[in-house]
Amino acid sequence: MLEDIHTEAVQAALAKHKEQKMALPMPTKRRSTFVQSPADACTPPDTSSASEDEGSLRRQAALSAALHQSLQNAESWINRSIQGSSTSSSASSTLSHGEGKGTSGSLADVFANTRIENFSVPPDVTATTSTSSARPPAIDLPPSGIVKGMHKGSNRSSLMDTADVPQPDPNQPKPEGRQMTPVKGEPLGVVCNWPPALEAALQRWGTTQAKCPCLTALDVTGKPVYTLTYGKLWSRSLKLAYTLLNKLGTKNEPVLKPGDRVALVYPNNDPVMFMVAFYGCLLAEVIPVPIEVPLTRKGTDSMVTLPSDRCWPRLKWVVTDSKYLSKSPKDWQPNISAAGTEPAYIEYKTSKEGSVMGVTVSRIAMLSHCQALSQACNYSEGETIVNVLDFKKDAGLWHGILTNVMNKLHTISVPYSVMKTCPLSWVQRVHAHKAKVALVKCRDLHWAMMAHRDQRDVSLSSLRMLIVTDGANPWSVSSCDAFLSLFQSHGLKPEAICPCATSPEAMTIAIRRPGVPGAPLPGRAILSMNGLSFGVIRVNTEDKNSALTVQDVGHVMPGGMMCIVKPDGPPQLCKTDEIGEICVSSRAGGMMYYGLAGVTKNTFEVIPVNSAGSPVGDVPFVRSGLLGFVGPGSLVFVVGKMDGLLTVSGRRHNADDIVATGLAVESIKTVYRGRIAVFSVSVFYDERIVVVAEQRPDASEEDSFQWMSRVLQAIDSIHQVGVYCLALVPANTLPKTPLGGIHISQTKQHFLEGSLHPCNILMCPHTCVTNLPKPRQKQPGVGPASVMVGNLVAGKRIAQASGRDLGQIEDNDLVKKHQFLTEVLQWRAQATPDHPLFLLLNAKGTTVCTATCLQLHKKAERIASVLFDKGHLNAGDNVVLLYPPGIELITAFYGCLYAGCIPVTVRPPHAQSLTATLPTVRMIVEVSKAACILTTQTLMRLLKSREAAAAVDVKTWPTIIDTDDLPRKRLSQIYKPPTAEMLAYLDFSVSTTGMLTGVKMSHAAVSGLCRAIKLQCELYSSRQIAICLDPYCGLGFVLWCLCSVYSGHQSILIPPMELESNLFLWLSTVSQYKIRDTFCSYSVMELCTKGLGNQVEMLKILPGVKVVIVNPETKGPLGDSHLGEVSADFAIWVTSVGISLR
Predict the structure, then answer these.
(1) Looking at domain 835-1100, which of 3.40.190.10, 3.40.50.12780, 2.30.40.10, 3.40.50.2000 is its CATH number?
(2) pLDDT one-digit tens code per residue, 1049-1076
(3) Which residues contact 985 (CB under 8 A, 6 or more apart)?
(4) 509-544 tens-digit pLDDT
(5) 162: how many CB neighbours lie within 10 A of its CB?
(6) 881: CB partners within 8 A, 6+ apart
(7) For residue 517, what are the contacts with CB-CB under 8 A and spacing of at least 6?
(8) Architecture of the CATH domain 198-294+317-495
């Protein structure tokens, strides 16, 4: 097809990137299997699905042509602007391609002060020559407190209060042209036969040209299934209007009255019923409100299931099939008056933040817009047009439903569901019906090119206008060029391609008029992306990899006036070499946001001001939401949208540009085209870029990580901006728009809520957050206490970091209903009695003991009975648990909780070194004031032996109870603490220097700790983890005894002492059970590294372990430096074994 030059640019940038020394570490990867499912469980999304807003299906091909001419200088662009291009389209009959008058003057106005970009910019690895540039002072973690790992409702960390606010780059280019003046379109002509209202046009054609075709609908195979004539449209709309006004209520209390809103709920494959309903509402003088039908799980148009009644307000539902409508009396006629300022219909849009707003269009605006389109497109009666767009909104509604009736056109409607099964269907309809006009998006051009081989005998010679409605997308130029080069041999004329720019607020802003055959075509702008990021127009001549080629979208609409204002702050007119928001003043535009008076004033009642702040005239303008400029010959150029604007450190980036760069990095093997979302989140006083894409089920983790790393490098090289987060989610998990594209605002909301559940993620704060607080420096004569007091007096908080708020995060199981671990265990014993919680291995790797939920519950009850019968203990008494690592320790712990006693786990003494280990046991027993000791028969004999008597006074031991032979007595009542703040257990630990430390743990602390570990490690019932830790204190005890009961996962217990006789035990267990997460101590790592270092070849059969969590509490005698050496040696060793370090 077309050589993708942008892909080559990206590859060149990546090649250069490898040669440079990385100043910062590469991003680290975090992988989650919380949502990982088998490949066959994920239905891959349609690879041809595209977003309505992004049009990202064709971005990779689009980037190529956009960068093809990037080495041209300002003189070449000036010459092309005057002489015309070889691949663009035309102007109107009054502003035709052949007109060169005023072009030179306009060009001088725009580029009089435009200089070639040669200022100091950061080093660009994509450049063929070495250039330097100053990276804009970067960025910052969330001002709103929304950070990854922090819930939306969490308090903002005071770390942000000490952050540096980003400052503008002093070397950034600034606009130097003169202030622009509003540009007027051609006058709106007065035609004698134009109707006074759109309803009058329907009445005229419905009564005088009843048999003329109005609208043809297609079936799922792309063949015509029904043709609605103007006579049928008039009669059915009349019946519906009569039914709405006279048959829904009583004569004295009608349900509807003029001015009421009526929702039109129709699927995207039924244009006939929608058109009847729309005009029926207009005739009844009620306001139609087209809404999108809720999508099914498959997202198809043919099978629609409405949600339950609870999702809808109290409405009166009307089925508009003819058999349900009442025929109007012969003497009844609708009230058709001349078009005025009363509302005609409401078109809804979604803002960047996800809120839904309704643009109200008046009857006079609707009529004027149809007149302007008729003049700009030169529509004539009886013409056939093919509409591939959504007929319920935007250009699909304006051309295919409204202007269609004004000019008695015949519309062939091609729904999205047909395009998915037959992408060439619209081309076939143009050929079969000899259509004069086709309304498409770049997505449809791309699909037609992909399916071109299926049918070659088609002709597009009848087309005089191929209206590309997303021509405002800067990357649409290559889709137009590629489609022209492929279909020019099929009769497509170069002057027939007519890009246009539209928005719900300003409606059609500009459109390229049909050209004269043989006339020169308009030129194109080759602009510097770096200059665009600062909002100025700079002709690019240096680096072809950072150029943007944009085509014009024609001239201002007839009867309209356009100006460019600054996108932020007061609506100040831009300079001629400055990028701003396009504003339009015309009768053919929206009048307000329904019910939003404040937002309406800021959008629909804009009075431009000059640099001094004085109003320029008194004509109100409407903000279009598009960013662009007016070029030579009054041609309009669009370079982006306000909704897709990402402002990072004072620089503007277009989300579509970021998507295009990502797709150029060999994306076809890793992610789905058209299934990428780019947005920004507020982090540390600045915006940060987030990229989310759907990963293919067959893409390996290693391939995905390589692609993600290359995308980060490409974006940094081409756009000079860092990416805060790049996440890959499973297929079909991102929220969709009704036409199958990505719902950006909902995706952003899921990201902020932490509910995206990515399967692969790269967090890169080190590449973009560079305004972190500077470390405090010691001042002479001022100590740290003085600095702290000064900060407190000044109202500053000490810097801190916090995790997610556990109180606002919901678990997915019933554990959240139980406040105590004993209640959780009882619930699991009833709900899942046979679910295994623990599995104990010996040195041979053989299972020596297991414990299900029910077994653990029953053994705990027996131990509690023994404590009451033999120990005569009361609730609150401390009980020392003296057991070797195993399941007996766990049952004894829950037995104490069942009896209301406070367990104290203690490492048992070693039989070969009683004199060294038994005093520690004695010290903990005395300090804890234990009333009883639970242990095994072997250890009980050891405590009372002669060897023990030589070390301690064995007569002072408290009551010792062995639990080897437990009576089968059922506990009458399980103890329940009165409050969660009651003591649950005592955690004693001995440091390497012999210092004993005891920590009191309440039931509330236990639940919070278990919950935090569950969320952080993503533990759930089907998971298995391997634990090779001592189970007597700290994290080792919590993982060994508590977490499995709380989370329900299975813990494979490996006593560390067993590794002394079998060094392979831990790693072979991980291999045998295919463990993803394993927990160990530094001593285990050191043992494996030293003992297995010379047996690498034998261990290469091991699978890649995803997470190895080392307990930092188990420090060696040499301190942290020794632990660092152990970690480094272990990392080198596992790499040689074949385990991924990530």
Answers:
(1) 3.40.50.12780
(2) 999 999 999 988 888 888 888 888 888 8
(3) 893, 896, 902, 903, 904, 905, 1001, 1006
(4) 999 988 777 777 777 888 888 888 888 888 876 556
(5) 16
(6) 889, 892, 893, 896, 903, 904, 905, 906, 934, 935
(7) 493, 495
(8) 3-Layer(aba) Sandwich (3.40)
